[in-house]
Amino acid sequence: MTFNPNALCFGSDLPGQGIPCLVDTTPEGLALTFSDQHSQPPMPSVPFDQLSLEAGGFDHDQLVVKWTQGSVGRTLYIKDAAAIAAFRHAAPPELLAHFDRAATAVRQARTTRRTVLSAAVGLLVALGVGVWFGSDALVTWAAGLIPPEWEKQIGESAMQDLLSREEVVREGPVVDAVKEMTARLTEQIANSPYQFTITVVKSPVVNAFALPGGSVVMFTGLIKEAKSPEEVAGVLGHEINHVLQRHGMERIVKTLGVMAIAAIVFGDQQGLIGLAKQLGVEIITLKYNRDQETEADLTGLRLLHKAKVDPAGMIAFFERLAQSEKEQQRVELLSTHPMSTSRAERLKAELKTMPRFAPEPFAFDWETVQASLKSPIPSAKP
Prior knowledge:
Layout: E1 7-11, E2 19-25, E3 29-34, E4 46-47, E5 52-56, E6 62-69, E7 72-78, H1 81-90, H2 93-111, H3 113-128, H4 131-134, H5 136-144, H6 148-163, E8 168-169, H7 173-186, E9 197-201, E10 208-211, E11 215-219, H8 220-225, H9 229-244, H10 247-256, H11 258-265, H12 269-279, H13 282-285, H14 290-306, H15 312-326, H16 341-352, H17 366-372, E12 379-380
Helix pairs in contact: 3-11, 5-10, 6-12, 7-9, 9-14, 9-15, 11-12, 14-16, 15-16
């Protein structure tokens, strides 16, 4: 029997690219069937009273259905007109109120489609004559159109590529400490579209980097070299803000050029993800420009301040990096983030403008965390 999916299902327990599925509307709710190739267990009908609706997709031409299955959040993207019509026919009036708002958003998106396409053509012509390569404003505009779900899939793909050849630290004092730092910082971020995941990798490299969508990698070499947990938290705050400011996506769009902008403008999710996958782990080595680094520095400092983490640790760490550059030591210190004395001075000046506060220490013992790195670290290949 031919399997003809009419929707795409996402969830934290599902692959990052989502799973195609067949949606049927019953009098009680939605019934989902996954293709055999994904070996998903049968899913019972999801009652209407557990669903929430909104318009989705780049053109808002998809019905986005959300619910919680156990402790797992699920999101269903339905673009098939027949499936949407069947849903509308069977859904209760109280849910249809949400549906009608979603339909209104779709109609509004379609009325502006011609204008958007005309602008896209004009933009592509401009890119063709070289404007693209001279204007980061265009890159920022294009990256801003990308839904966080797309970012997450791009970041997860690059992460899987990287971790397939690295040892991941799964448990122990180091992992517990990084989790506490992450929670302390991310709790201060209001209405974040990202769920941050920090992965500790066993490596002597003194480095950390962020991927689009909320994935951050921290190497044990950085934790060994840091003089205090506040230094590590400073680096973490810097990386988190690269994600929040979408700097990674901007660098990817800049690198991919015209093909990426076309995929974004025309709402070609799989096209953009496919282009990004061609970069593979090269995504990690894409350089941020000076403005992006400055923005991540300053917003990272402000995040530390909100979390009542002593910002002096961040400044001290960056000053030591600047000293390494000055002495021309060929050590891989945050290689994707070239440091300079002027950046450390800018952070000092920004800190003087902030209200004074009493820093709150972390619950863990830093000497114990660093000592644990001298013993065999529980780790595993993903």
